[in-house]
Amino acid sequence: MALTLYYNPASFFSQRARLAVEEKDVAYRSHIISHPSGEAIEPWYMRMQPNGTVPALKHGEIIKTDSKDIILYLDEITPDAPKFYPDSSIHGSDRVAYLTDLMQTISVEQITFGSLCYRQYTQDCKLPNRFDVKYAKQSFDAMGDEMRKLAEKHPDLRESYMAKIKVHEGRDLTNKENFLVALKECDSIMGEIEEELAQKWNGKFDNFTDSDPWLCCNHFTVADIYLATLLHRFVLAGQVKRMWGDGKRPYLAAYYARVQQRKSFQRACGSANNLYLSVLLPKLKHQIRKAFPRLVGFSLFAASLGLAVGLYMQYKGYPSWWPNNLKPKF
């Protein structure tokens, strides 16, 4: 029975799960969830994933709703493949556990939203310029209001919606002080990982072969999944210079260059930092499917392309000659 992975390409935790699935090379179906369209809080999804988050993995009647649980489950159903969580007989297994737990403490969402709101602490940030603290707070408030409406409309899901609202409103992802603390703590952790790689690679920065070790072991482990997706997120958030750029941490730079050549990483994360492909395209496809549920094939493609042009222009700005009455509202 095939797996179905529910994810959003731009979601950091989705990237972890998708990279794990690709590493195991198991057959799976993709179901992209559009965050900007609120698909993750739609009733059909909340009934399957009460947290209203991505990723989620469905395998028959089994549903896993956390990236860590998904990775553990993939180990369970692929007993003959190298383990993401190797047992004590594998050299380096103790480091896998330690470094994975260490990276788990990094507040990725705080760093992402902080980089959105405080551009002076970023360099070459690939996140959209239109976001600021005011915009982010308005978006958060709008999401909370929508969940309250859905809780009233769907009494069977009220408990799940109210729990999600409590989590949603309990976070302060636009707080500048929290952002700077998160950056400092992450910088320290990256320093520790640089030392780990220096011991493993001992002066080697390129021309890696399959026999060369990864972060902890000779094979790709959960620690590598965490590190690869973290480094990729730092590229998106404009934190490369702070974390490893300009020769600050040459082993981390070499690691990121190496992991980008890995086929599983290319399939799982290759387009994740292209927000037109990972955010806007899923959004427009979801909007079209909701408006025209019977639209399929070429018609869906044509409609998506037309809406993509409109979203792109709204996102980047319309040319001066574009007529006001032809500017669509989204």
Annotate the secondary structure layout.
Blueprint (H helix, E strand, L loop, with lengths): L2 E5 L4 H13 L3 E5 L10 H6 L7 E4 L2 E3 L2 H11 L15 H12 L3 H10 L15 H21 L4 H13 L5 H26 L20 H16 L2 H4 L6 H10 L3 H7 L5 H17 L5 H20 L14
Parallel strand pairs: 1-2
Antiparallel strand pairs: 1-3, 3-4
Relevant terms:
330 residues, mainly alpha, four-stranded mixed sheet, 5% strand, disordered C terminus
In short, what is this structure?
The chain is mainly alpha-helical. It has helices spanning 12-24, 43-48, 67-77, 93-104, 108-117, 133-153, 158-170, 176-201, 222-237, 240-243, 250-259, 263-269, 275-291, 297-316, and strands at residues 3-7, 28-32, 56-59, 62-64.
Please give a structural write-up.
This protein is mostly helical. Helix content is 56%, strand content 5%. It is built from 14 helices and four strands. The protein has helices at 12-24, 43-48, 67-77, 93-104, 108-117, 133-153, 158-170, 176-201, 222-237, 240-243, 250-259, 263-269, 275-291, 297-316; strands spanning 3-7, 28-32, 56-59, 62-64. A four-stranded mixed sheet has the order 2-1-3-4. Helix 1 (12-24) links the parallel strand 1 and strand 2 (28-32). Helix 5 (108-117) packs parallel to helix 9 (222-237) and helix 13 packs across helix 14 (297-316). The longest helix is centred in the middle third of the chain and has 26 residues, at 176-201. The radius of gyration is 21 Å and the shape is globular. The chain starts with a strand and ends in a 14-residue tail after the last helix.
